[in-house]
Amino acid sequence: xxxxxxxxxxxxxxxxxxxxxxxxxxxxxxxxxxxxxxxxxxxxxxxxxxxxxxxxxxxxxxxxxxxxxxxxxxxxxxxxxxxxxxxxxxxxxxxxxxxxxxxxxxxxxxxxxxxxxxxxxxxxxxxxxxxxxxxxxxxxxxxxxxxxxxxxxxxxxxxxxxxxxxxxxxxxxxxxxxxxxxxxxxxxxxxxxxxxxxxxxxxxxxxxxxxxxxxxxxxxxxxxxxxxxxxxxxxxxxxxxxxxxxxxxxxxxxxxxxxxxxxxxxxxxxxxxxxxxxxxxxxxxxxxxxxxxxxxxxxxxxxxxxxxxxxxxxxxxxxxxxxxxxxxxxxxxxxxxxxxxxxxxxxxxxxxxxxxxxxxxxxxxxxxxxxxxxxxx
Length: 377
Fold this sequence. Notes:
Layout: E1 2-10, H1 14-25, E2 30-33, E3 45-48, H2 50-58, H3 62-65, E4 70-71, E5 74-79, E6 85-89, E7 101-104, H4 105-112, E8 118-119, E9 126-129, E10 134-137, E11 142-150, H5 157-161, E12 166-182, E13 190-196, E14 199-205, E15 211-219, H6 222-228, H7 231-242, E16 246-249, E17 254-263, E18 267-268, E19 271-273, E20 279-280, H8 288-306, H9 311-340, H10 345-359, H11 362-372
Parallel strand pairs: 1-2, 1-11, 2-8, 5-13, 11-19
Antiparallel strand pairs: 3-7, 4-7, 5-6, 9-10, 10-11, 12-15, 12-16, 12-17, 13-14, 14-15, 17-20, 18-19
Pathway: Cofactor biosynthesis; ubiquinone biosynthesis
Cofactor: FAD
GO molecular function, one term: monooxygenase activity
């Protein structure tokens, strides 16, 4: 038996289910499947930009997660072994827009999975496409669609099967993520990022004032070592860097290898890559999920304005804009990681000078804050 849909979505992570919501919002039919037997438990957090919040509002989703979202009122960025820093003030009248919000991925999953019929445990036998149709053969059924969105993450099997050319490079770093509770120090809705030689170390505010989300990038394979040492020793290492006394690790310590993944041409006929399948970036700026949201926001805007029947002739222009935006973020994050990981005294002095210049300029601060908020992306 063959069923036909406007869109087939491969991958039921956050990007895939958000794609299903936008199609549902537009009254388009979709079939979303995932090879996993069920949704994974994701203890990470996401920094949701203001532009992303607006898109969630468009889809009627933000009000269901807003009470769990923690606004970032200030951001401090420091360089190791330097007195230079950047302070992005949320209450600066010259910066007339809100900062980002920190939302636990468990909350995002709870909200986004509601109302979406996901077909779990589905492993296809084959995928093929013509210029205007996609066919996915499963052991017990055949699904066809007008378009296919691939949202399988950085290591997409479908992208490889269909011959998408990927630029993939390891940073030789891993990212350790967990939530912590301090002995009494409150975060006051302030996010802190410290650039170390091994990689950035960030603390984001969570819902309770003494709870923080730690995103710690280290040289490979030190992340696995940090994940295995006992709690007391781990918290001691965190205190040495942050200066904050922590009393408990609240979630499992999860370690991920950091790999750049970028597709220069994320479309083959009716098949399109979105999210990390198209552009998996370094977590240094906390923009990975936001880039996926911008992909889908632009897709929603094009479909809403011109309709599905006219989408094919507009798809290349849509993807060109998305590629340009993603490429700019890849270049920015890559530059940050490479420039701040070099221990050269002359480069450290140059970085300090740049930080001091930006800190003294409201115009430059505004530029960087607008990019972080998603404006122009």
